[in-house]
Amino acid sequence: MVEELSLSVEMMMMIGLLGLTIALFAFELLRVDVAAIAIMVLLGLSTLVPGIDPVIAREQLFSGFSSNAVISVIAVMIIGAGLDKTGLMSQVAALILKRGGKTERRIIPLVSSTVAFISSFMQNIGAAALFLPVVSRISARTEIPMSRLLMPMGSARSSAAP
């Protein structure tokens, strides 16, 4: 006997929220952080709709922020934005461009070794996130696709990393 599959109201609501999330992220209708918070608020408001079982308990809506990984990535992004505003990241990008020229063959090892050095003092993911503005500037100045610089940089890590 084959059971007939049907979508419940809760399932359709979640598919709609997922579709809205993908559209907001893909088309950048809002900044990514604003879109993420808006979706989280909509998910929380969905618990107030009568007749629909809550998808998530209100008490658990912000439980993701209790993770050390989430807090450390947020902190690194804040530190990275501060360093970028001070001009330090522009100086690092200029130094790498001065040493590496505009050739991909010389820039990739410089970027990767710099990230590996930074990752010896902090988490690997944090070091990569901290270096995103530098890679973006180098990519714009050399016309090397950012993906060609990010892939080796993402795998660069120091053996002394915590």
What features would you describe in this structure?
The chain has 162 residues and is mainly alpha-helical. Helix content is 67%, strand content 0%. The chain has helices at 9-27, 32-45, 68-86, 88-100, 104-119, 124-130, 132-142, 146-155. The chain is elongated. The termini are far apart.
Describe this structure in a few short sentences.
The chain is elongated, with a radius of gyration of 21 Å.
Structural class by SSE content: mainly alpha
Query: How much helix, percentage-wise, in residues?
Result: 55-70%
How do the SSEs run, as a string of H and E? HHHHHHHH
Number of helices: 8
* Poorly predicted spans: none
Number of strands: 0
Using only CA atoms, what is the Rg? Answer: 21 Å
Q: DSSP strand (E) fraction?
A: under 5%
Shape: elongated
Q: Please tell me the overall pLDDT.
A: 84
Sheet with most strands: none
State the end-to-end CA separation.
55 Å
Total discrete domains: 2
Entry keywords:
single chain, 162 residues, mainly alpha, 2 domains, 8 helices
